[in-house]
Design brief:
22 strands; alpha/beta; Aminopeptidase; 16 helices
């Protein structure tokens, strides 16, 4: 291990090294759980806190944050897709490419391929974790203010900061540190705006950090619903390459650190690509936390010292984070008290030659508000604010006691005869699985080729999300009842399954706040070794 780290050029107290893949946030989550569950002494706290790399990127984000509704804590875990160290130097080729098969330093840029928000209630209880798919097409804040994949906010802001700082006479390492601060700030602000919640703290971990954490606790057990075989594809002039080399059977497998990295990196040969990889990240966090708890590692001083060492080397946190105070809340993260959900997309489209996830910003805010609210009494969602609403609209400021629960529009589905037998019924069933209450199902007059989506008062946001499935624009109609959307399927209707893969609602337990919400696939629950695809 020492030989591999020599080229990394790590300087004490300098900026963080980036992640190579989305799942580096696992190290953050494990580290947070470690802090809370160990009951460490004041001396240990001081030793850990003095050695942490701190960031001031939260300052600007807090100026523009939505208001807090209670004393809960929202923690953002960030993972960067970069193969460079904290000073901007390439990570060792023999480690990143040959051992981990994570690609060269030319791949990835500074994208945030993992964004997970942990909502920790003020008075204890279940911790809600929301993953934001990396390709969600959103309006950035603190970057250039334009629409981009959410993962790109970091790199865009970093590049702009580098251009401004280029003639300041800064060293390469200092230029890297300061420009990454701009990237972090833009990421935090974009997530806050997208979800309409304040971010209180954040943590970031590098590629080596994930590997070191996995190395400290290996072997780690994971569970797959199906066998996987992800052969490595060499990079050529016409192909970017890919593959992790991972080959595992269905069921439970024990992984070493390198295999663990492959497990959370794989996206090829998965039904839903990156969306399935997000569930891998969540499942791996759960498996590591379960092992820490079950095997008593959290009470083993020697093991804890090893983990603390990794935390100090590889985790970057905000400079407002009082670890000792936070340790009183962090036990909520252990003992199977965390549920991971993935925020839904509405479909896909191509923008500038790149495939992006389309999303419904209003729906995302509604879901987040309901999950993070402590008020269990559902109320009707307010009517649409008007056709001028946009993703950049100012955050809502409703008090916690009046925060509306998510109420989905009722969807009526009609189909022309040429759409095929059972078309309306099948489409109604698919929309019901997405969380929309079923309305009227029947035949439509005429022989229209293209599908249409119309809506009544209060159903604009849901109509827009539904319309994205068919590549059409939703339009208001006076003849549609309030709270209803009418889908009329034409003869050339789009294939239902391909538009929204795995977008079934979470199946949650009775009393689960996410039950019935239109999440991107089922929830991943901590407290064991969850099986995923």
């Amino acid at each position: 291990m020492a030989d591999r780290r020599t080229p990394r050029g790590r300087a004490p107290r300098s900026g963080p090294a980036p992640l190579a893949v989305a799942a580096r946030t696992i190290a953050c989550a494990v580290s947070v759980a470690v802090l809370g569950a160990s009951g460490f002494t004041w001396y240990e706290y001081r030793s850990l806190d003095d050695g942490m790399t701190k960031s001031g990127a939260l300052g600007e984000a807090k100026k523009n944050a939505p208001p807090h509704l209670d004393k809960s804590v929202n923690l953002l875990l960030i993972g960067l897709d970069s193969r460079k160290d904290m000073d901007g130097n390439d990570l060792p080729k023999q480690f990143v490419e040959d051992e981990l098969h994570a690609g060269s330093s030319e791949i990835g840029g500074y994208n945030t391929n993992a964004l997970i928000v942990l909502h920790i209630p003020a008075n204890g209880g279940k911790v809600t974790a929301l993953s934001v798919p990396r390709d969600d097409y959103v309006q950035t804040v603190g970057a250039d203010g334009k629409m981009h994949k959410i993962k790109e906010a970091y790199g865009i802001a970093k590049e702009a900061a580098e251009a401004k700082l280029a003639n300041k006479g800064l060293s390469k390492a200092e230029l890297e540190r300061q420009s990454r601060e701009a990237g972090r700030s833009a990421t935090i602000q974009t997530v806050q705006s997208f979800l309409d919640v304040p971010i209180d703290h954040f943590a970031e971990v590098n590629l080596i950090g994930f590997y070191d954490i996995a190395k400290a606790v290996e072997p780690i057990q994971v569970c797959l619903n199906h066998p996987v075989d992800d052969p490595i594809i060499a990079r050529t002039a016409s192909h970017e390459g890919g593959g992790t080399g991972l080959k595992l059977p269905a069921g439970i497998s024990s992984l070493d650190a390198a295999q663990a990295l492959s497990f959370v990196r794989q996206r090829h040969h998965l039904t839903n690509g990156d969306l399935d990889r997000t569930h891998r990240q969540q499942a791996f966090i759960s498996s590591v936390e379960y092992k820490l708890k079950q095997q008593g590692i959290l009470n083993d001083f020697g093991q804890m010292q090893k983990l603390f060492g990794v935390v100090k080397k590889d985790v970057v946190i905000d400079n407002e984070w009082n670890i000792l105070d936070f340790a009183q809340q962090a036990p909520n993260l252990t003992g199977g008290n965390v549920e991971f959900n993935t925020l839904p997309i509405t479909g896909f489209k191509t923008v500038g030659g790149q495939e992006v996830n389309t999303v419904n910003p209003d729906l995302i805010k509604k879901i987040t508000r309901q999950l993070f609210s402590r008020d269990p009494a559902p109320v009707q969602a307010p009517p649409d604010a008007g056709d001028t609403a946009s993703p950049s609209a100012a955050p809502t400021t409703a008090a916690a006691s009046t925060a509306p629960a998510l109420v989905m529009a009722t969807v009526d589905v009609l189909a022309v005869t040429a759409a095929g037998p059972g078309a309306a019924a099948n489409e109604s069933k698919a929309l019901t699985e997405l969380g929309y209450p079923a309305g009227k199902v029947g035949d439509a007059a005429g022989k229209a080729k293209n599908s249409t989506v119309t809506y009544g008062s209060g159903a604009k946001a849901d109509a827009q999300a539904i319309a994205a499935r068919y590549g059409v624009t939703a339009t208001p109609a006076s003849g549609v009842p309030a709270g209803h959307v009418v889908v009329t399927l034409g003869s050339a209707r789009a294939a239902t399954p391909s538009a929204t893969p795995s977008a079934a609602p979470s199946s949650g337990d009775v009393g689960d706040p996410a039950a019935g919400l239109p999440m991107q696939g089922p929830a991943v629950k901590a407290g064991g070794i969850p099986c995923v695809d």
